[in-house]
UniProtKB/TrEMBL annotation:
It comes from Halorubellus litoreus. Catalyzes the first step in hexosamine metabolism, converting fructose-6P into glucosamine-6P using glutamine as a nitrogen source. It is found in: Cytoplasm. One of its GO terms (cellular component) is cytoplasm. The lineage of its organism: Archaea, Methanobacteriati, Methanobacteriota, Stenosarchaea group, Halobacteria. It catalyses: D-fructose 6-phosphate + L-glutamine = D-glucosamine 6-phosphate + L-glutamate. GO terms for biological process: carbohydrate metabolic process. This is Glutamine--fructose-6-phosphate aminotransferase [isomerizing].
């Protein structure tokens, strides 16, 4: 049942290329630079949208943070992302001008459903981005976009995060094109990168043994910091959550520029820093941050498409060129790192203590 893997989590990490092909299947027209999503968001509807509000919890919230950058860059629309349990509807003058997107793998998370209901009650249009056909979120929202990742058994969300970001990338193209904000050339470029995504993820999966060795070298440290910029910052948060959740060690993720505003005081040779260094996200500045932690003796593990970084990294895991999707590819490396650390520590990886797959209380 685990397909020869020791845990569902590892199986699901390895299922990512196939899951992503499913997310994309039949939805992409690369030549026209457009997508075909089975949603009711027409050009007329989208022309009226002044703001998109993404609401979600945990890993799905991190997918929302990633999507916010994509929507801002490629669809030229104002976007907010909020943890669902903190959400209050603050629409403009006309609630219908706000599109509220609930990102939820299960479609049953109580906090997310409650946020969505607040928005619907106020008169906003709602869209559920979910893995689960027939889930409460899918039924209650005005529209649903399925991420098609297949069932995920491990409590830790892995392939569903990748599929969420992929589906939200398609949604970005859909919205950008229909709002006249995205040229077919730029859209084709993003879609070409999406086509390359399963193969790029496979390259990281092929580095699994290497990451296992890295994990055993850096297991049992005081704390772990995860940093990156822009899209890389979303992934840094996700990498830290994964490690906390399944390895029960302290980890913190944040935008790399924030290091020098406080956390640097905690950095020692016993606090590995995992960094996402991709071409699209001011890698020079991130490299400066890396130098600061390196000079304090912290081991630096870099997931990098930025060649100039190599000299400053204790471990370099190369990320193939893939534009805005590079951090998503790097995240697969972070998943494997978390998995191997947790495995080394003998944790109950598929069912971490105190946690449930679907959180149905507020
Ligand atoms: O089903 P949802 O996407 O709404 O779940 C949200 C979170 O509970 C979930 O992502 C949680 O953070 C994961 N266990 C993280 O791996």
């Amino acid at each position: 049942e685990k397909g020869g893997y020791d845990h569902y989590m590892l199986k699901e990490i390895h299922e990512q290329p196939g899951a992503l092909r499913q997310t994309l299947s039949g939805r992409v027209d690369e030549v026209a630079g457009d997508v075909d999503l089975d949603v009711d968001l027409s050009s007329e509807v989208l022309a009226d949208v002044e703001e998109i509000q993404l609401v979600a919890c945990g890993t799905s919230y991190h997918a929302g943070l990633y999507a916010r950058r994509l929507l801002e860059e490629f669809a030229d629309v104002r976007v907010t992302v909020e943890v669902a349990s903190e959400y209050e509807f603050t629409g403009g003058r006309d609630p219908w001008e706000t599109l509220v997107v609930a990102v939820t793998q299960s479609g049953e998370t109580a906090d997310t459903l409650s946020a969505m209901r607040k928005a619907a009650k106020a008169g906003a249009r709602t869209l559920a981005v979910t893995n689960t056909v027939g889930s409460t979120a899918a039924r209650e929202a005005d529209d649903a976009l399925y991420i098609r990742a297949g069932p995920e058994i491990g409590v830790a969300a892995t392939k569903t995060f990748a599929a969420q970001v992929t589906a939200l990338s398609l949604l970005t193209v859909h919205i950008g094109r229909r709002r006249g904000a995205l040229s077919s050339e730029r859209a084709s470029n993003l879609l070409e990168n999406l086509r390359g995504l399963p193969g790029a993820v496979q390259q990281l999966l092929d580095a699994s043994e290497r990451l296992e060795a890295v994990a055993s070298e850096y297991v049992d440290e005081d704390a772990y910091f995860f940093v990156g910029r822009k899209l890389g910052a979303a992934v840094a948060l996700e990498g830290a959550l994964k490690l906390k959740e399944i390895a029960y060690v302290h980890a913190e993720g944040f935008p790399s520029g924030e290091l020098k505003h406080g956390t640097l005081a905690l950095v020692t040779e016993d606090t590995p820093v995992l960094t996402v260094l991709t071409e699209g996200a001011r890698p020079k500045e991130t490299l400066n941050n890396v130098k600061e932690v390196e000079s304090r003796g912290a081991p630096v593990i870099g997931f990098s498409s930025y060649d100039a970084a190599a000299n400053y990294l204790d471990v370099e895991i190369p990320i193939p060129d893939l534009g805005a999707l590079e951090p998503l590819v790097a995240n697969v490396g972070l998943q494997l790192f978390a998995y191997h650390v947790a495995n080394e520590l003998g944790r109950a990886i598929d069912k971490p203590r105190n946690l449930a797959k679907s959180v149905t209380v507020e």
